[in-house]
Structure formats: C-alpha cells, structure tokens
Amino acid sequence: MTRVKRGTIANKRRKNILSQVKGYRFGRSTKERMAKDAIAHAGTYAFAHRRDKKSDKRRLWQVHINAAVRELGMTYSKFIDALKKSNIQIDRKILSDLAHSHPSTFKRVFEKVQ
After folding, report:
1. Which residues of the chain register pLDDT less than 50?
2. How many separate helices (H) and strands (E) can be counted in the chain?
3. Domain map of the chain by residue range?
4. Less Cβ crowding at N or C end of the chain, within 10 Å?
C-alpha cells in the first residue's frame, strides 16, 4: 500500500497567516507563532486608530473654522455659541469645507450669525 501524506489544512492555515504578515520585519514575517501575535496586535491597533482618525479630523475642522472666523474678527467658541443661539444647524465638517473651499459662502453664514 502507498503512503498518504496529510496536513494540507494545517499548511493552508500556516500559509494564510504568513501571507497576512508579508512585509513585517524579523521573525514576525516568517515564524507562525510570532505572526499570529503580530496579526492580533495589528487588528487591535487598526480598530483603535480608526476611532482616533475621526477625532483628528474633528480637530482639523475646528482649526479651519477658527482660522476663518479670526479673519472676520471673532473667536471659534463665540462663533459656535452664536450658531447655536441663532439655530443654524451646520456641522463642523461642512463649516470647515465652506471656510476652506468657499469663503464667500462662509462669510454669508458668518453675517447671519452676527
């Protein structure tokens, strides 16, 4: 009787793990145990940093709005307060885009607020 070699599933799993860590440095790209650990950490960081990216964007919008509003003679916090009091519901993302790309439109919004 001929000999049957097995282990195809284990080889497939190993190959899949190692293909996910291509480009990693040192043993993390070649050793299965280190590769599994690297994948787990990478996933954790990716999840956390997707959240961080959103807060970074919000900070950038605030900087854009503040820069545009200071040119018109007001501070960011007073502008946002005036927006809320005049019941204009434009979010910071849109305001930032207006200040950056369409200054004339932003100026009209500013004049409505005053």
Report:
1. none
2. 5, 0
3. 8-113
4. N
